[in-house]
Amino acid sequence: MARPRRGGEVFERGTDGPKVIVVGVDDSEASWRAVAYAVGLARRQGALLAMVHVRPVSAMAAVAGVSVVTAEPGTATAERICGRLRAGLASMTEVRSLRWEFHSVVGGDVVAALSQQADELKADAVVVGASHGLGHRFVGSAAVRLVRARRWPVTVVP
User: Fold this and answer.
1) Three-class SS of residue 56?
2) Which of 109, 111, 149, 150 could connect to 145 by a Cys-Cys bridge, CB 3.0–4.6 Å?
3) Which InterPro entries does the record associate with it (predicted)?
4) What pLDDT is attached to residue 41?
5) According to the model, what pLDDT value does residue 56 have?
């Protein structure tokens, strides 16, 4: 039953959750846990799940200032991740109606690439796995940097 809210907006019970959820996947155990959490969230909310893998820019391309990447190991990783996602989702009967997409993008900075994808897809929420690498101590973890962007709710899955 729709009820008018202040400002003329209409609130409908059961339809007020996220419509697009972006989850970062990089083949780490933490990212697979984030995917599992995001799958459940998207299924319960009836949201589109956009799984985003950020492929690294090759060192040669970065030095040359070229953003074109051809036949890099990142492509094979993306294909392996997508195959694992397809197999995992196909085996789960409760997610057969799940709407999902896999995006493999090239980016030097994971946070910038995830942010760009979330903006382009008009994401309502972003889910990432907790960082366990040493690099985040110097640069800051992807999760913290996404939270600081203050554009979407960010869920960090340990």
Assistant:
1) coil
2) 111
3) Rossmann-like_a/b/a_fold, UspA
4) 92
5) 79
